[in-house]
Design a protein that fits this description.
It is built from seven helices and 18 strands. It has helices spanning 2-11, 43-55, 105-114, 130-136, 197-214, 234-240, 269-287; strands at residues 14-21, 33-40, 60-63, 69-70, 76-82, 90-93, 96-100, 117-118, 139-140, 143-144, 149-156, 161-165, 183-191, 193-194, 247-248, 251-253, 261-263, 296-297. The longest helix has 19 residues, at 269-287.
Length: 304
């Protein structure tokens, strides 16, 4: 680990730290230290980073804005790569835009709506990076990333780049090929449509206000916890069981929206995991439905 740290420092790939506390980088405000934490300055520096980590045989994973993510209290062995300002570029060419994987989705939807481009209104309240949103096919209000993505620029763990078309991204409900084949979305090209700027802005504001009114973003949380077992909805099942407000340690099922678990102040990953298992057991007992998580739960690797 020390050799990789020194090599990355010498290459000046960006911000390289040891022992960075990951709760500072997640929307749930939960997570222990990363052995190595890297924020690359550019796509090229990101490629250098991945190459060095491969050569030094160090496992790595990527986080963007830290939403939809539960990191263990014990922290993570290996390296954590954070896509930030170094990958926040944006190019607008008519109805097509190319944007860096680190660009905040909320900011992008606001910028694009004011340009009179339609297609990203649904993303106005999703606290993810572009790369993370593509990775999990983030969506809301009847739309998702697969509806607007034209192609994605992917960096694979062997250091190679490839542009994948929407079809080759193998999108389905909250999933993509990147959950099966390890890679990083460093850029995305979206196909949007020209529209009435005032109507687009108003629609985005409506969606954003709707999320604010119905979801507990006034508390640290990670977004929807469970995948909807369609045609059923996770929040509906949890609410029917009277579990709103159920609390284990500092983790609570939100009284505002039953498919959210909030950090009431001092929640640990263990608290959240215990509450997830409790809900899964209750739903299976009453409905015989095995409900899966939408949030990405990272297992600790400290003891390996």
């Amino acid at each position: 680990m020390e050799k990789a740290y020194q090599r990355l420092k010498q290459l000046q790939v960006g911000n390289v730290q040891k022992g960075e506390i990951l709760s500072n980088h997640t929307t749930m405000r939960i997570g222990g230290p990363a052995e190595l934490f890297i924020q690359p300055n550019s796509i090229e520096h990101l490629q250098m980073t991945v190459t060095v980590l491969k050569e030094e045989n160090i496992p790595w994973r990527v986080i963007g804005r830290g939403s939809n993510l539960l990191i263990p209290d014990e922290g993570l062995k290996g390296a954590v790569i954070n896509l930030g300002q170094g990958l926040e570029h944006l190019e607008i060419n008519g109805e097509e835009i190319k944007v860096g994987g680190g660009y905040p989705l909320v900011k992008l939807s606001a910028v694009i709506s004011k340009k009179g481009l339609s297609g990203l209104e649904f993303a106005g309240g999703i606290p993810a990076s572009v790369g993370g949103a593509v990775y999990m096919n983030a969506g809301a209000h009847g739309s998702d990333m697969s509806k607007i993505l034209k192609k994605a620029h992917i960096l694979f763990e062997d250091g190679s780049f490839i542009w994948l078309s929407k079809e080759k991204m193998e999108f389905s409900y909250r999933t993509s090929i990147l959950q099966r084949k390890k890679g990083i979305c460093v850029e995305a090209v979206f196909q949007l449509k020209k529209g009435n700027t005032e109507e687009i802005v108003n629609r985005m504001k409506y969606y954003k206000e709707y999320r604010k009114d119905t979801q507990p973003w006034d508390y640290p949380c990670a977004g929807s916890i469970f995948r909807n077992p369609l045609p059923k909805y996770a929040g509906q099942l949890i609410e029917e069981l009277g579990l709103k407000g159920k609390q284990i340690g500092g983790a609570q099922i939100s009284p505002k929206h039953a498919n959210f678990i909030v950090n009431t102040g001092k929640a640990t990953a263990h608290d959240v995991e215990a509450l997830i298992r409790y809900v899964q057991d209750e739903i299976y007992q009453h409905y015989q439905i095995k409900i899966e998580t939408e949030i990405e739960r990272i297992e600790t690797k400290k003891d390996e």
